[in-house]
TrEMBL record, chains A, B:
<feature type="site" description="Cleavage; by autolysis">
    <location>
        <begin position="178"/>
        <end position="179"/>
    </location>
</feature>
<comment type="pathway">
    <text>Amino-acid biosynthesis; L-arginine biosynthesis; L-ornithine and N-acetyl-L-glutamate from L-glutamate and N(2)-acetyl-L-ornithine (cyclic): step 1/1.</text>
</comment>
<keyword id="KW-0963">Cytoplasm</keyword>
<dbReference type="GO" id="GO:0005737">
    <property type="term" value="C:cytoplasm"/>
</dbReference>
<comment type="pathway">
    <text>Amino-acid biosynthesis; L-arginine biosynthesis; N(2)-acetyl-L-ornithine from L-glutamate: step 1/4.</text>
</comment>
<feature type="active site" description="Nucleophile">
    <location>
        <position position="179"/>
    </location>
</feature>
<keyword id="KW-0511">Multifunctional enzyme</keyword>
<dbReference type="GO" id="GO:0004042">
    <property type="term" value="F:L-glutamate N-acetyltransferase activity"/>
</dbReference>
<keyword id="KW-0012">Acyltransferase</keyword>
<keyword id="KW-0055">Arginine biosynthesis</keyword>
<comment type="subunit">
    <text>Heterotetramer of two alpha and two beta chains.</text>
</comment>
<protein>
    <recommendedName>
        <fullName>Arginine biosynthesis bifunctional protein ArgJ</fullName>
        <ecNumber>2.3.1.35</ecNumber>
        <ecNumber>2.3.1.1</ecNumber>
    </recommendedName>
</protein>
<comment type="similarity">
    <text>Belongs to the ArgJ family.</text>
</comment>
<feature type="binding site">
    <location>
        <position position="179"/>
    </location>
    <ligand>
        <name>substrate</name>
    </ligand>
</feature>
<keyword id="KW-0068">Autocatalytic cleavage</keyword>
<feature type="binding site">
    <location>
        <position position="386"/>
    </location>
    <ligand>
        <name>substrate</name>
    </ligand>
</feature>
<feature type="binding site">
    <location>
        <position position="381"/>
    </location>
    <ligand>
        <name>substrate</name>
    </ligand>
</feature>
Length: 386, 386
């Protein structure tokens, strides 16, 4: 709380409580004082909400000025009213910030199927300050939480530039191309096409490698805004920093998965190609039987074999070439002994469980992230709302 | 217990305890005294065990004499020893029954990665009676249980013939073409190609419409043996009876899903074709968020919309054409009121929850079956074994 996370130059903003559901912060807007380039990716859901549609349009020209989020209501499946409401929020924030509505990305997260309480939204927007103070990204990260237990924020320096990312998301996470809500702000100067290429590559290896519960949200959004105020940076260095910050956020999200007690990292190697490694990794990290075994710190490697095996389209996978390792303990094909199983169980009692699967085909590799499945997930979701 | 389920003419067998793990029955063999035709389908898992491979070969010529099952050990991922052991069981049963080993289907279910305790298996097989008594299918159904809470058996008459099916399975169930273990015995007379066609069609609409937890077993097997002793039957009537018996078993399995409290039936209509309806139905019935909402009797239809929406390849699905109904209560697009949500919640408090989704495209339809996700599933699977 005391140490604020660094904010890149030129980003101002507000965060506060509209009163969507309770007295906690449920709103933020972060806006760049200078024009910025943007790259953004969104959910592929057929039930994508109006916020996703408006943000997609806002980002389409590669330029944007800011991001605004309302939490505790997803504004999804709310029909034409939902679209009008989202547009009104976008316009209200843009007016206060003195920018064009089409330069504001908007997102919303929470329960599906209920309109915003627009009376409260309107009076909140009307009260926004004429001049935004410097952005408080820690508070902004907190303002978008739903069942998150803590805000997620990470930062890095790239030459003279600052890169800070915030994220939220604990359930309904199986990004197909983007993920929950995550926003990156930087004062680095990058050409938009370069930023776009770098961002998509990083998202694919980080947020798209994450799965909490196989359920893809209707609202997944990820974007990065670069306003260039800190001048040009080395693109390779920038990509490395972005990857590092994104991976930190992904690990925070996985560890904070609904009811989760442990981060699961599944490293697949020896695949035909990276895409196959990713498919197999997803099958393992999403398997309820693997997830519950991790919860119970049970080195039941047979369930990993099962999860690999259920990828029945991967006809070049043969059990006799597969190797399964928990931590650094091989459990297959080397016959597991009581001693090795005990060592594997010890590894699984930690906060981070690493399961390595080598397919013995070629050198494709991919690492995916997830979490264990616990009674807590059931409790949270059996009566989340309605 | 008192009323035994009818057994078709000519089927003899034994059931008992080998001592694989505990003193409960863990073995059965059912053999037809007359030659029988067979149709069988098996898991598509790349880690399919030796029992599946031997049974596939045994059924390949369309003729078989019997089925044997060992429970409490899957004999999967046990290497060449596992194959030799399975073959020895197949041969031991065949010898006792006086038939060819290649006419005995074999299956095994339980923990993966441990060899059978062959000393006990051998002494048990050596003690099999020289002549098998009439089959006891109730006891056989019980002998293959693992975490099942009760045996699953159903029967029907077709003209003068009897058809009885038994099944086991509570977890690791997402059949891709077959399912857990299920065996059908009949004294009806059918040509093998006809039996095969009918069986595959029925399996596709019943066992392949079932999903407990998306995890496909390494051992899924389903077969039907018809020995013809009751003479010919009307094929249409036979298919109807087989469908009825299979569906009863499917509903028993779903209701008895690990930790499950409720059967979930998802009826998808208005799809482009039946296959699309099945994909959407599976997405809904497998969604952890839908499953936990059902557990909590929470008519959170937004999660059903999410699950439909995450089928992002179904580009002809548009929210404005979708209809979502819990029981007989429409919750979308008709705006749900407190009164309708209360009625939907009442429906969800029952043992069987029906969720209907109409896609408004064409007339494709498919119904799938599953169960809720509860703390019990976590408890059972967090420390099942090792």
């Amino acid at each position: 709380m005391s140490d604020k996370t660094p904010v890149p130059a030129g980003f101002v903003g507000v965060a506060g409580n509209i009163g969507i559901k309770d007295p906690q912060d449920d709103f933020f807007a972060v806006v760049s004082q200078a024009p910025a380039v943007v790259s953004a990716v969104f959910t592929l859901s057929r039930f994508a909400g109006p916020s996703v549609r408006l943000s997609r349009e806002a980002a389409a020209d590669g330029r944007a000025r800011g991001v605004t989020v309302i939490a505790r209501n997803a504004n999804v499946a709310t029909g034409q009213i939902g679209t009008a409401d989202a547009r009104e929020v976008q316009e209200g924030v843009a007016r206060a910030a003195g920018v064009e509505p089409d330069d504001i990305l908007i997102a919303s997260t929470g329960v599906i199927g209920r309109p915003y309480p627009m009376d409260r939204v309107r009076s909140y927007l009307a009260g926004l300050p004429a001049e935004f103070p410097p952005a408080d990204l820690d508070r902004s990260a907190a303002a978008m939480m739903t069942t998150d237990t803590h805000p997620k924020i990470a930062t890095a320096k790239v030459g003279g530039a600052t890169l800070t990312g915030i994220a939220k998301g604990v359930g309904m996470i199986e990004p197909n191309m983007a993920t929950m809500l995550t926003w990156f702000f930087t004062d680095a100067e990058l050409e938009q096409p370069v930023l776009d290429e770098v961002f998509r590559r990083v998202v694919d290896k980080t947020f798209n490698a994450l799965s909490i519960d196989t359920d893809t949200s209707t609202s997944d959004s990820a974007a990065i805004l670069a306003n260039g105020l800190a001048g040009p940076v080395d693109v390779g260095e920038f990509e490395a920093a972005l990857h590092e910050v994104a991976l930190k956020l992904v690990r925070m999200i996985a560890s904070d998965g609904e009811g989760a007690g442990k981060l699961i990292e599944v490293r697949v190697t020896g695949a035909r190609d990276d895409a196959q490694a990713k498919r197999i990794g997803k099958a393992v990290v999403n398997s309820p039987l693997v997830k519950t075994a991790v919860h119970g710190a049970d080195p039941n490697w047979g369930r990993v074999a099962m999860a690999v095996g259920k990828c029945s389209d991967e006809t070049d996978v043969f059990p006799e070439n597969v190797r399964i390792v928990f931590g650094d303990v091989e459990t297959f094909p080397t016959e597991a002994t009581d001693e090795t199983l005990e060592r594997a169980a010890q590894h699984m009692k930690g906060d981070e469980v690493v399961i390595s699967v080598d397919l013995g085909i070629a050198d494709g590799a991919f690492t995916v992230y997830g979490c264990d499945l616990t009674e807590g997930y059931i409790r949270i979701n059996a009566d989340y709302t309605t």
